Amino acid sequence: MTYHVLVPDNVHQKAIDIVEASEGISVSAPGKLDRQTLLDAVPTAHALIIRSGVTADAELIGRAPALRAIARAGVGVDNVDLAAATAQGIVVMNTPGGNTISTAEHAFGLMIALSRHIAPGHQSLAEGRWDRKAFSGVELKGKTLGIIGLGRIGQAIATRAQAFEMTVIAHDPYLPPAVAESIQVPLLGLDEVYARADYLTLHALVTDETRGMIDTQTIATMKDGVRIINAARGALINSADLAAALSSGKVAGAALDVYETEPPPADHPLIGLPSVLHTPHLAASTADAQVTVAVEAAQLVVDFLLEGKAANVCNPDTLES
After folding, report:
1. Catalytic-role residue among 262, 268, 307, 320
2. Contact indicator for 215, 241 with CB cutoff of 8 Å
3. Residue 137, Cβ neighbours under 10 Å: how many?
4. Confidence (pTM)
5. DSSP string of 181-237, one letter each residue
């Protein structure tokens, strides 16, 4: 039997080469497909390799009777209907480690840029002004960084913040305490992290508990002048509530790489606010990370189809006999 792997998005050629070199597997890698073309192409696929630009929803999964595996070249699987995949016996896998450093560096870069007004300072000078007094910033040294979600990315940020002589605290109800102890980061209750943090950086998954966790009520428990960084998922923040807190001065600034809807609509409440630094979901967008996650996703698919090995499974119920 020859398995058919469909790659309906732009992934690095090294990933395609891995699949093509595997005996017993054929691959179709047309690049980014529009929705209808993808729906027409998926019925013969035994596996998909996707990025965030492909939505593997119930409709798509229902069109794919031969599908056995979906590999996400990246961490988040928000774009995959896990329930529909599980119901059809499709294993969903991701590559959680491949973009750790790129995302951590971007989040940390956002924190520095926000603190020192780098983007507006550049724009001001580019427009012919010399406004040194207008862009006085703050140092990171001596400030407390609260990390919500101390997984791979959160841990990478913690070690970088410690190098900048910040005090690092975190909240993560799922992390073994020994892991946090190994990097000298105390795990605290969420309320205490909110109350103590000068900077708050989000690295949590979107769940019923975390959706909209940054809202009017939680912001009220934070320090006056807190700065918030989000390079995880836009749905963690209630945008209207954060906009109101920024306008009142309760929150001194925010740096955002992710949005509930991407691209965000023109009337998004946080777009255009002078105290907000924006980037268009760039955290994992480095050449290094894109190669790594693509290669890892390709190897996951090959190992699963040819050897029955499943790693980084996001819906483990599919593996139960």
Report:
1. 262
2. yes
3. 14
4. 0.84
5. HHTT--B--HHHHHHH-SEEEE-----TTTTT-BSHHHHHTSPTTEEEEE-S-GGGB
The residue-averaged pLDDT of 47-62 equals: 94
The structure tokens listed for 239 are: 């945008």
Name the amino acid, one letter, at 144. T
Q: Kindly tell me if the per-residue pLDDT of 120 is higher than 60.
A: yes
Is 307 one of the annotated active-site residues of the chain?
Answer: no
Contact 154, 162 (CB under 8 A): no
Contacts of 204 (CB under 8 A, 6+ apart): 148, 149, 210, 213, 232, 233, 236
Topology, domain 3-98+287-319: Rossmann fold (3.40.50)
* Catalytic pick among 51, 68, 233, 268: 233
The tokens of 235 are what?
């749905």
Contact criterion met (CB below 8 Å) for 172 and 151: yes
Known active-site residue 268: no
Sorted by sequence, the CB contacts under 8 Å of residue 146 that are 6+ apart come out as 169, 170, 171, 193, 194, 196, 197, 199, 200, 201
22 DSSP β-pair partners: none
Report the pLDDT averaged over residues 167-195.
97
**Among 3.10.25.10, 3.40.50.1000, 3.40.50.720, 3.40.50.300, what is the CATH number of 100-278?**
3.40.50.720
Q: Which one of 63, 116, 278, 281 is the catalytic residue?
A: 281
Segment 16-44 mean pLDDT = 95
Is the pLDDT at 40 greater than 80? The verdict is: yes
The rounded distance, in Å, linking the Cα atoms of 156 and 160 is: 7
What confidence category does residue 259 fall into, taking pLDDT thresholds of 50, 70 and 90?
very high
Q: Indicate if 233 belongs to the active site.
A: yes
pLDDT of residue 98: 86
What are φ and ψ of residue 298, in 5° steps? -60, -45
CATH 3.40.50.720, the chain: domain bounds = 3-98+287-319, 100-278
